[in-house]
Amino acid sequence: MNQRITVSVGIDWADAKHDFHLITPDGQIHAGVFEQDPKAIADQIAAWRKLCPNAIFAVAIEASKGAIVNALLEFDDIQIYPINPSAMANYRKAFAHGGGKNDPVDAKLLSQFIDHYREQLQPLKPNSELTRKIGVMAQDRRRLVDQRADLANELTALLKSYFPAALALKPARSYSGFFLKFLQKYTSLASAQSAGAMQLRNFFHGVGAKSKADGYAKSLIAAVPLTTDAATIEMSVLRVTAVVDQLETLTKHIKRYEQQLKKQLPQHDTYPVVKSLPGAALNMQARIIAALGDDRKRFPNAESLQTASGIAPLTSQSGRQKFVNARWACPKFMKQTFHEYAGLSITQSRWAKAYYEQQKEKNKNRRNAAQIAKRALAYKWQRIIHRLWTSGEAYNEDLYIARLEATGSPLFKQLSETA
């Protein structure tokens, strides 16, 4: 059986159409454009197959997801090589010093890049359906949470401008259920005061705030209006009503995502590992599973995970000078996941809290000492998580602390002193 040849293809993608540049093994060049349309993509692949029968097409593209990637994944003879845009930008500068971008030229450079460096790159290996679903749900839920936070801040600012007495109820969050119900019924101080103390107490009883109902009612009745300007109050009420409705809708959909994650997560092979991590609740468990993925070859060691996630610092050296900086060219959500997990672990892990305090003290003269300490802790956690991920073991705090003792770690001494 003849060995299949590999053909290098560069695709510069766009919303509606894509430029391609193909290099055959004997050096022939074929370039063109095809539309972002299922039939057009299938026709283009058929044309490549006719040109290079029995070939594998190594496609370099500056994307790892999206419409064109989803379409190309349907073809067994297509291998997708996602190219980091920063790497491509530097490669482009070698040929166009002005830094200009041109779709056909970029397609050509991508094909040359994959032709020269394919052996050093990893083709895209899609995660299982379950992992992909968990990843999408985790990221989409976070987007909704961020939208809710922005709207909650807007709601607080609006109330400060015309109805500060509502904020005197001190809700745990501006989107708390009882607080949104209150603002739906009483949109201004005048409407609350006209209801009277008894009706207000009955309302708070009905929304589960029985123990505080009397205090809330008295506070609202005694409050002095910030403004009596009719235009200000009327327009603020209109906007508050819109924001409250949006907050209710967002909360409803966030709960739906969480319900789905609660059903899906226990089915995943990595779930026993992430469930054992101290401080990692449902949503963080989903995010860590999505960050790790299924392909163990993608992160053959902890260092590759630390670098890919952007937690590992970027070290550069020139002569006797050495520079260490934060790594910016990385998947932001993935970096955020491990950084936030480090912060959560401080509340549940003895050694993590001790290490965090140790790093804060070490960097106490730096403006962002807390962030530096969390990043250092995330770096340490990634080594642990990678080991658990590859072995399938659950995390055990006592065993880890025993290992710190056995290796004579200064951290164990600090733990013993604070115990």
Please give a quick description of this structure:
The protein has 419 residues and is α/β, with parallel strands linked by helices. Helices cover 58% and strands 11% of the residues. Helix 16 (350-362) runs antiparallel to helix 17 (369-391).
Largest sheet: 5 strands, mixed
**What does the average pLDDT come to?**
90
Helix content: 55-70%
Radius of gyration: 28 Å
The dominant shape is: globular
Low-confidence stretches: 314-330
Arrangement of strands in the largest sheet: 3-2-1-4-5
Number of strands: 7
H/E element sequence: EEEHEHEHHHHHHHHHHHHEEHHHHH
Structural class: alpha/beta
In DSSP terms, counting alpha (H) and pi (I) runs of 4 or more, how many helices?
Answer: 19
First and last CA, distance = 68 Å
The proportion of strand residues reads 5-15%
Account of the 3D structure:
With 419 residues, this protein is of the alpha/beta class. Helix content is 58%, strand content 11%. The protein is built from 19 helices and seven strands. It has helices at residues 38-51, 67-72, 85-93, 103-117, 129-162, 164-167, 177-185, 189-195, 197-206, 213-222, 230-264, 271-275, 282-292, 302-308, 332-345, 350-362, 369-391, 397-406, 410-418, and strands at residues 5-12, 17-23, 29-35, 55-61, 78-82, 314-318, 321-325. The strands form two sheets. Strands 3-2-1-4-5 form a five-stranded mixed β-sheet. A hairpin with a 4-residue loop joins strand 1 (5-12) and strand 2 (17-23). Helix 9 packs antiparallel against helix 10 and helix 15 crosses helix 17. The longest helix is centred in the middle third of the chain and has 35 residues, at 230-264. It is globular, with a radius of gyration of 28 Å.
